[in-house]
């Protein structure tokens, strides 16, 4: 029997660990139940931190961890899924293509930034969506020091006033002063189509964000969008032109394109609709997890968000349940009642909320301390020690904060 997992992000990593854990619990050998993870690199990109400087350091190796729990790693990109034949088509280095059969498949392909066809966006826009994107932005920012002042050199426009946009924008004043000198006066502008900043944060938490933006001098343009970009800057839908050498797109996510090959229903974000076991009902043998899945967290109508907080726990349930079906043992329905947000606000600290109504618990330096702990400890993989790694992936013990 073979269980195949596509993706080495938070969901894919914990799916592999959890499946290996259940295999061991039931005394099944790795030869009897093969677990294979497919990814371009055996590396976890710590994506929630890509708004920070030096993004090339924000990765964690997985190969020794996978070896410790006897999960096979296949280097390559999953290009196709043939649900009828139960095969995955893989593009490997040098253009070589292979096919790998599966008895159960876990789709943990993550998400991509939604990039609309706005004139100039592809040529002049930056993002922190992927490691290469974040590295390109970082190099561009360091390159600003060698350019003449004026003409928008010290101006950054961030398109999108959600979580990612706010964290990127509030980090920029510190990053730019480190590059341009302590006397630099960087200008940062958030452009948000909604009438309020942080539209998903709610009435209780939003004033904290608004106050933080005021304190560090981040401007906002609300109720407008980006119409076009060129070398001189960005033009907004209201007609305003902002001279800026740096425009960062942070508006909207979509499930990775591979999910479109699964014969199943999807939501407006391209996520596969799954049942409580994270099974894709219309595609026999296929589970989806993380940003690839639209999954109910509870019985109150709350659904998992595209976040590592949800992906980590969802991955553990998906891997467990896919393995459980192959082993003929009961599955464990996914649930994640707890939900928190911890939003970095740059020099203004951070904001920590709890619950779907986002009750504010910590602000400022206290919240920043929690954010640092989340970013540097909690979201990193377990050590490559077999017993500890397997224990960390028990779906009922994986933290949901």
TrEMBL record:
Transmembrane segments: none annotated. The keyword S-adenosyl-L-methionine does not apply. SUPFAM superfamilies: FAD/NAD(P)-binding domain (SSF51905). InterPro entries: FAD/NAD-bd_sf, FAD/NAD-binding_dom, NDH-2. It comes from the Bacteria. Keywords: FAD, Flavoprotein, NAD, Oxidoreductase. The keyword Chaperone does not apply. Residues 2-315 form the FAD/NAD(P)-binding domain. Belongs to the NADH dehydrogenase family. This is FAD-dependent oxidoreductase.
